[in-house]
């Protein structure tokens, strides 16, 4: 079958490992289902996979794509939940052995993907396949950061570090719909304008001093914005972290952390119930993901190049 895959780990030059070609059809274990993929969306996770981060070398070649939407053999239209884990931990994201598609099992950038039967949810009719393909990773991560992990309430102020990325644009849209005052930092005028068009109340240059401290900061950038994040949060406020794109080892700023009684909270993906709630929220409120580029899967390399260069304007979607 047709697939977009990583041939081998390549930390220095990840796109040199990207292949667009043929892979064997998947075998379907008992209790798993086959999804005829209609669309997938690109996540930074796919670039980490090409670099060999979060995947063992013997797992290559690996079909990329942790997000997708498609059709089951009986015609049901579905959204894929990418977290494959044991729910006896109370939440599959807490299973220490849980994995995302593309870490142990093949991903969605292909004609077909196989997943456990519990890992598909009905696609709301209000979302296109391309829009639905944005929900399972970036949007689910944003949903959990905001509604499960942050403790922020409607009327309070949130700061999103990064304006144009998949998780950032989801945070802006969800936060605005839920009644928060949404502030954003972005690296260019164009990216800040995008955030404003999605409903942000104000957009600042990266690192700019804010008019006042905020109730919660949402971090996926890491090293490049961490010092600003720690200075921007109110005493007793929260910093919710789900990524570290620019580097993982910033100074912890421990004195500020304890003196200002800042809560630093990690967050990863979301469980199936959160994905169901996210889909319902989007359906009820008419929310749509910002999609900056929609390309056929055969042209996936262009999308990867855009993400690697930081040229995002919301999600990058691949259609079949
Ligand atoms: N833990 C999880 O479950 C989970 C799930 C999804 C994503 N993530 C992580 O979250 C991060 C973002 O993923 P994504 O898919 O949203 O990526 P993306 O679409 O490529 O977005 C990247 C974002 O990072 C910002 N950024 C990058 N480098 C920066 C720098 N040097 N200074 C300031 N801002 C910078 C960009 O801001 P501008 O708009 O200003 O360019 C943009 O908003 C990745 O590290 C990913 O691994 C984690």
UniProtKB/TrEMBL annotation:
It comes from the Bacteria. Residues 13-318 form the Enoyl reductase (ER) domain. InterPro entries: ADH-like_C (IPR013149), ADH-like_N (IPR013154), ER (IPR020843), GroES-like_sf (IPR011032), NAD(P)-bd_dom_sf (IPR036291), Zinc-ADH_QOR/CCCR (IPR051603). Keywords: NADP. It holds the Pfam family ADH_zinc_N. GO terms for molecular function: oxidoreductase activity. Residues 1-24 are annotated as: Disordered. SMART domains: PKS_ER. The keyword NADP applies. PANTHER family: QUINONE OXIDOREDUCTASE. This is NADPH:quinone reductase-like Zn-dependent oxidoreductase. It comes from Actinophytocola algeriensis.
